[in-house]
Amino acid sequence: MEAASRETFAKVLRFIGSLSRKRPIEPEGEESALCRCLSALDLVALGVGGSLGAGAYVLSGEVAREVAGPSVIVSFLVAAVAAIFAGLCYAEFGARVPKTGSAYLYSYVTVGELCAFVTGWNLLLSYIIRASSIAKAWSGTFDDLIHNVMAATLRKSTAMDSPGLALYPDFFAAALIMLLAGILAYGMKESAGLNSIFTAVNILVLLFIIIAGFIKGDINNWHISEDAILNATLHAGNVTLNETTDYGVGGFFPFGFDGTLAGAATCFYAFVGFDCIATTGEEVRNPQRAIPLGIVVSLLICLLAYFGVSAALTLMMPYYLLDAHSPLPVAFEYVGWEPAKYAVSLGSLCALSTSLLGVMFPTPRVLFAMARDGLLFQPLGKVSSRQIPVTATLSSGAAAAFMVLLFDLKALVDMSSIGTMFAYTLVAVCILILRYKEDSSFVHRSEPFTLMGLLRPPSRPTHRTSKNVNIVIVIILFVVIVLSVVLSETVDSLWRREPRTLLLVSVLALTLVLALVIIWRQPQNTTKAAFMVPLLPVLPVVSIFINVYLMVQLGGETWISYAVWMAVGLVVYFGYGVHHSVQRRRLREARSQMNIDNLNRNAVDSAG
């Protein structure tokens, strides 16, 4: 009985250990089935299209009017720096692991299979919900141009009045998704060409907006006095002011610098989308150079565009008169350029088109990568004669179309934010693990743990120093989560400098600094890549903090919905993926071959 218990316990330990099995970057016998046809310029267009969406036409006005005023340009600058931190982590992995799968694959080769599946499942959630919501926005923008004929007709004929469901099935948005899925399934080069055209039109329209804004703008709109706001008429042109609304105290920072930072948290989501570049590892020429270049350049272009549009908008019109839903058409009407609103509508549709292509592009690549590794159903890993994952492309398109037909997407958009922030966080963690990984080319003796060893480690990374870093990373994650929760719950008392809150935040901050110093003292792996994240370990840890803080801001209902999605994913993994894992088969075959080799060697020794 005792022997059986020990055997059962050993099996459980082996199973738990198998959940952390890692995938080799280049498995023996695996060849890419995808076509390498993309250039660095295609990747820049893909990244710009994915990030520079409708936010450029709406978000700047909403943030300026409600939380930041003219300092919205600073909000975008802070948000861009935060996004670039995450982008640099993706860029290094793109140079080190030039394969399809993005954060899913990065976590698989670094921390193991279960974590990789969770990451991939998060990415699928994020991409599919974002595709559905962008298609819905495209449909709504087009419907506005034809005076809401579609919405009125569908509300009368196919109304759905149930909690969690859409007001009516948006057949136009669903058809748009399937049309683009068909284009993506037809050919990679053709899809990239279409995306480049939409992106070029979008950038031209934004350039027109920026130039027009600086021509018609008035620098005095950045220095509005508090008296001017108080004395402003309730009716300015066609814009109506609400007497109960808080418009701040005027000036460049009417809501204070804390308002600017709050705006930065909102603006950060405007830069989400560059990660689609990381899924092109097997479809781009010279990926080690092109992927980092595409990520960095696309983020810089987006920064200039958002910075320029928000500056032009707040120069054209006092921030408190901006329309939160359609700020640019109202601003052009305010300065007497009413026909310009048609150019804005064209640019908005092109921006939504590139955003939709940008978010639909990576979904089948993640599905394909997970199916190729055996963690999702095998048919999703098949490619067409044109070297496109057709089944995965059409399946992901059908899932997004189904969602846009039935569900109230406003309730689901925050869930997609969790998926994105989770992936960004894990990529930053993986960078730390990878850069401080033990050097396999360095023969070293085992070392016991000592406090002195933390601050005076050996000159080359060993198993001990790598383990030290991994332990400290876990501590950092715990401290960052606690600090994020504390900051989100006590921001007012912190602003009032209450001693208890200041002490708690100070202790957590000092713990975080000490952890950074310990990691900084450890030796880094000597393996080089075409691009490497600078300022280790500070930059990845700052990225982790930003992403965790943003996740903490989301409401309880969002986390409950997210938990349901993750429960479904774990059922899929433990019911299918863990048994069909290709890496599991590789390890079994390797062990079998090792046993055969040992038997042959013993037979030779016996014969001798």
From TrEMBL:
<feature type="transmembrane region" description="Helical">
    <location>
        <begin position="72"/>
        <end position="93"/>
    </location>
</feature>
<feature type="domain" description="Cationic amino acid transporter C-terminal">
    <location>
        <begin position="531"/>
        <end position="581"/>
    </location>
</feature>
<keyword id="KW-0029">Amino-acid transport</keyword>
<dbReference type="InterPro" id="IPR029485">
    <property type="entry name" value="CAT_C"/>
</dbReference>
<dbReference type="GO" id="GO:0061459">
    <property type="term" value="F:L-arginine transmembrane transporter activity"/>
</dbReference>
<feature type="transmembrane region" description="Helical">
    <location>
        <begin position="295"/>
        <end position="322"/>
    </location>
</feature>
<dbReference type="GO" id="GO:0097638">
    <property type="term" value="P:L-arginine import across plasma membrane"/>
</dbReference>
<keyword id="KW-0325">Glycoprotein</keyword>
<dbReference type="GO" id="GO:0000064">
    <property type="term" value="F:L-ornithine transmembrane transporter activity"/>
</dbReference>
<feature type="transmembrane region" description="Helical">
    <location>
        <begin position="415"/>
        <end position="436"/>
    </location>
</feature>
<feature type="transmembrane region" description="Helical">
    <location>
        <begin position="165"/>
        <end position="186"/>
    </location>
</feature>
<feature type="transmembrane region" description="Helical">
    <location>
        <begin position="105"/>
        <end position="129"/>
    </location>
</feature>
<keyword id="KW-0812">Transmembrane</keyword>
<feature type="transmembrane region" description="Helical">
    <location>
        <begin position="388"/>
        <end position="409"/>
    </location>
</feature>
<keyword id="KW-0813">Transport</keyword>
<keyword id="KW-0472">Membrane</keyword>
<feature type="transmembrane region" description="Helical">
    <location>
        <begin position="531"/>
        <end position="552"/>
    </location>
</feature>
<comment type="similarity">
    <text>Belongs to the amino acid-polyamine-organocation (APC) superfamily. Cationic amino acid transporter (CAT) (TC 2.A.3.3) family.</text>
</comment>
<keyword id="KW-1003">Cell membrane</keyword>
<dbReference type="Pfam" id="PF13520">
    <property type="entry name" value="AA_permease_2"/>
</dbReference>
<feature type="transmembrane region" description="Helical">
    <location>
        <begin position="342"/>
        <end position="367"/>
    </location>
</feature>
<dbReference type="GO" id="GO:0005886">
    <property type="term" value="C:plasma membrane"/>
</dbReference>
<feature type="transmembrane region" description="Helical">
    <location>
        <begin position="40"/>
        <end position="60"/>
    </location>
</feature>
<keyword id="KW-1133">Transmembrane helix</keyword>
<feature type="transmembrane region" description="Helical">
    <location>
        <begin position="192"/>
        <end position="215"/>
    </location>
</feature>
<feature type="transmembrane region" description="Helical">
    <location>
        <begin position="558"/>
        <end position="578"/>
    </location>
</feature>
<dbReference type="Pfam" id="PF13906">
    <property type="entry name" value="AA_permease_C"/>
</dbReference>
<protein>
    <submittedName>
        <fullName>Zgc:175280</fullName>
    </submittedName>
</protein>
<dbReference type="InterPro" id="IPR002293">
    <property type="entry name" value="AA/rel_permease1"/>
</dbReference>
<feature type="transmembrane region" description="Helical">
    <location>
        <begin position="469"/>
        <end position="488"/>
    </location>
</feature>
<dbReference type="InterPro" id="IPR004755">
    <property type="entry name" value="Cat_AA_permease"/>
</dbReference>
<feature type="transmembrane region" description="Helical">
    <location>
        <begin position="500"/>
        <end position="519"/>
    </location>
</feature>
<dbReference type="GO" id="GO:0015189">
    <property type="term" value="F:L-lysine transmembrane transporter activity"/>
</dbReference>
